[in-house]
Amino acid sequence: MDTQTSRQTYRFGILGAGNLAGGVIRGLLQSEFCSVQDIIASQPVDELRRFLQEETGITVTAGNLEAAQRADIIFIGVKPGIVRSVLQETAAFLKNKLVVSFAAGVRLATMESVAEARFMRAMTNTPASIRRGATAIARGTRTTERDMALAREFFTAVGIVVEVPEEQIDAVTALSGSGPAFVYTVIEALAEGGEKTGLSPEVALALATQTLLGAAELVQNSGHSPEELRRMVVTPGGTTAAGLAVMERERTPGGLSAAVEAAAARGREMAKENE
């Protein structure tokens, strides 16, 4: 690193630029919320570090200390099991800074006991990379109103943002954090059904994907509830009714709801493990 770069102060520091944090970085740059000169991130894996730096143009370091020291606002993107150790390692450089954690199952009280930062939690998801993220933020005991305004501005640049009390973060983690994986499973299943009824894999996947996109936008923009929109599609004795009857018999809706409940329960277990 040259002398000029080593003296630079960055606006945002990301400790652990993996899939989730990396997606947020891409969304921020895509939205032009900040420039590549504003971000420094850490990524210990050589191949991933080179790829992120080449793709985005941001500064990426192997260790956490430089990112924590050089940035004004810090985001924690490491795995939940090592959050405490990373905070202990960087605590001297986090004092009085806003620190936003993406980690599931690591409570604000746990983080506040390790470092004298203004901690917040944010649960977002990978569609943030294309500015379609769904983010919930929770304030800590040291969070200021200015911190909340900054967080709202930051996450609005990559999607929608809501504020929730911390006790609801596990539910958010399960619904919007894990939710994309559940949706991808639904897309795969719809496409598989299309293939079984004679469509090519490419056509089936394209139609399944666009069907979910269109249906989701109708829920978002029509002013109708999912139940009302479903009734608009169903004709008694018709094809949709036949398909929905099988979904009920196979307990597909119940399975998706149970998946969210199971993910939330695991989040609560992780919080106990990381106390």
Description of the structure:
With 275 residues, the protein is α/β, with parallel strands linked by helices. The protein folds into two domains: 162 residues, Rossmann fold (3-Layer(aba) Sandwich), CATH 3.40.50.720; 92 residues, ProC C-terminal domain-like fold. Helix content is 56%, strand content 15%. The protein is built from 13 helices and eight strands. Strands 3-2-1-4-5-6-7-8 form an eight-stranded mixed sheet, sandwiched between helices. Strand 1, helix 2 and strand 2 form a beta-alpha-beta unit. Helix 4 runs parallel beside helix 5 and helix 9 crosses helix 10. It is elongated. It starts with a helix and ends with a helix.
Write the layout of secondary structure elements.
Layout: H1 3-7, E1 10-15, H2 19-31, E2 39-42, H3 46-56, E3 59-61, H4 64-70, E4 71-76, H5 83-94, E5 98-101, H6 108-112, E6 118-123, E7 133-139, H7 145-156, E8 159-163, H8 169-177, H9 179-196, H10 201-221, H11 226-233, H12 239-249, H13 252-273
Parallel strand pairs: 1-2, 1-4, 2-3, 4-5, 5-6, 7-8
Antiparallel strand pairs: 6-7
Helix pairs in contact: 4-5, 8-13, 9-10
